Every structure is written in C-alpha cells, then in structure tokens.
Amino acid sequence: MTKGSLATRIKEITLAHNFRMSKALGQNFLKDPHILESIIDSAELTEGDTVIEVGPGIGVLTEAIAQRAKQVIGIEIDRHLIPILEQTLRDYPGVRIIHEDVLKVNLAAIEKQFFPGAEPKIIANLPYYITTPIIMHFLESSMRFKSMTVMMQKEVADRIISEPGLKTYGTISVAVQYYTRVEKVTEVPRGAFIPEPKVDSTVIKLTPHSVPPVILESHVHFFRTVKAAFSTRRKTLVNALSNAFDKEQVKEAVKTSGIDPSRRGETLTIEEFARLSNELYRIEKSS
Length: 287
Hints:
Strand content: 15-25%
Order of helices and strands: HEHEHEHEHEHEHHEEEHHHH
Structural class: alpha/beta
CATH class of the largest domain: Alpha Beta
Largest sheet: 7 strands, mixed
C-alpha cells in the first residue's frame, strides 16, 4: 500500500463515520505504510503471537497486526471509535476490542480471559500527553510480556534511550532501562500523520530483561533514590539526596558506595544507583 492510498483510506473511513479526531485524546493516525511496516517488522510477529494494541484508532495498524498474529486485543478509550473498529476489522475473528482506559484496565483479568499463561507482545502509537504513565503501567504490572514496540514523541523517546551524563538522562531513563533493553527502531516525521502534529516521533522497542540488571534491597527505595537524585539537577548528589534522606546517612552511603560526593545524579549509572540505594537502605534499616 502506498502512502497516498493509506491516507485516502483513513479519510474515507473517518468521513463515512463522520468521525472527528480528538485533540484532547491526542489522536493522530499514521498514514505512512513504510513506518507501519517498520513497526510490524520490529515486533517480530509470528502466527502464534497474542498482541495487545493500545489505542487501535480506526484499525489500520490493527489490521496489519491481525494478518500476522494469532490474536489481537485492542484497548480503545474513545467510544466513537468502537463501531468503526467493529466494521473495519469484521473479517478478523482473532481481534477483540475492549472499550476501556488502558491506565484503568485490569491487565491481570485480560491475561486470564484471553491468553492465560502466555506472554503477549505490546504494540502502540501512544498519545504524547500520557506516554510515560502508559509505559510504566505495563512495566510495573504483574503481567509478563515479550516486547513492547511503541511510537511516541521524539523528545520522550530521547529521554528513555538516554545515557548518563546527557541532559536528556533522567528518572524515566533509569526506570525503563531497569526493566527493559531499549532499542531505537526508526524516527517518524510529523508529516507521516493525519492530522499532522507539531512534533516528530520515534518508534522504540522495549524487551524485558530475563535477569534484572542489578540486585536491589528494595525496589521502592531504589526509585525513591533515583527520583531524589534528579529532583534538583544542579545540586550535587549529596545535597539532592538530602531533600529525601537524612544528610549524614547520605554522606555515609555515598562514601561506602565509592561514589564522589561532588557528582550530580545525572552522571550515575544504573549500577551506581543500585549500589547507593542498597547502602542507604541498609543504613536506614540499622539506625
């Protein structure tokens, strides 16, 4: 399918149903078939796969997924899109559409109902305004998945992929990289969408680690440490962490961890954050 024909199909479907895209829901439909194929190819779909698609829209990407996978579970928040999806996907019995907010949906219940014991792949074109909460919703859930291939605002993708020492490196970088291996699939210009957004996008693929990259005394304590370290980026690590922990305990933990106290949080690797968090946890617990 050419770029022009896909764009024409999107317009025909939306006109036939008198559907108007919602800015509030961040609706921008992909019209470039080459990007669509890149998303499908990077997900490495097989005929035995179950796929959870977040925000199927009018079903263009959903249809392409359904042609390669065994089952597609689409989670769509916009009630106006449900009848459109039912019609455009009527020839695919393996597709199920759930009218729900993905941040409120019970992922464990979906797993039990549609693919008990199996690990799905997740594919999504995420609304810019809610990208991070949706990603963390899946990463922090009890539902195991094989991979997550997602399109998002380029600025957010840059932060997720970022490395220590860069201005884009932050809490979301550490959080996502703690749970997954991150790969950049492709960049997507704003002209690849209808309507055209004001920013460019990027497709990334997240693959859960088979073994955690670091050993933690406490997950809660680890993320508390990371969040505090990035809370005031201009401050040294000791001063930043002292906003959330006892300063003397911070000094002791930094010293024991072998980390220069004059460093800033954005220079620490995940391994250093883990070492520091574990030391803080032990000191707090013993005091």
